[in-house]
Predict the 3D structure of the following.
Amino acid sequence: MTPSIHPSRARLLRLFAAAAASAVLAGCAAFAPDSPEERVRARAQARWDALLAGDFEKAYAFLSPGSRGVVSLPQFRNSIGAAASWKSAKVHGVTCQQADRCKVTMLVNYTPLLPRPRVGNIETSIDETWLLEQGQWWLPQGL
């Protein structure tokens, strides 16, 4: 014989289960990139994270299909250069003034590797333009 649950207790358990499910779904929604700005922010940060890790193949994959058709992976790798040691990069802001075009401002921290007196770390901002093509945000080479 299965023990029965008092009706008021069963209602309380259902309410608790519903509240827990709502909290889980709300938590998932908080991490889901819904807006174009959030999607571009995530892709721009992932690209820079790949660059910082030295994963040029992964960073190259964020270039627009048209850019990858013109710039090979070795050319891309060589365009990054070796004049600086990248320390960190963080998305500072994303502005989408058009439905298919967003401007990303990155704050990048690096150390120049030039044969001059050591100047230490430098922080600068870099603007990138991301374009929406075929449902995905891409960084065109040279924009």
In short: The first strand starts at residue 84 and ends at 98.
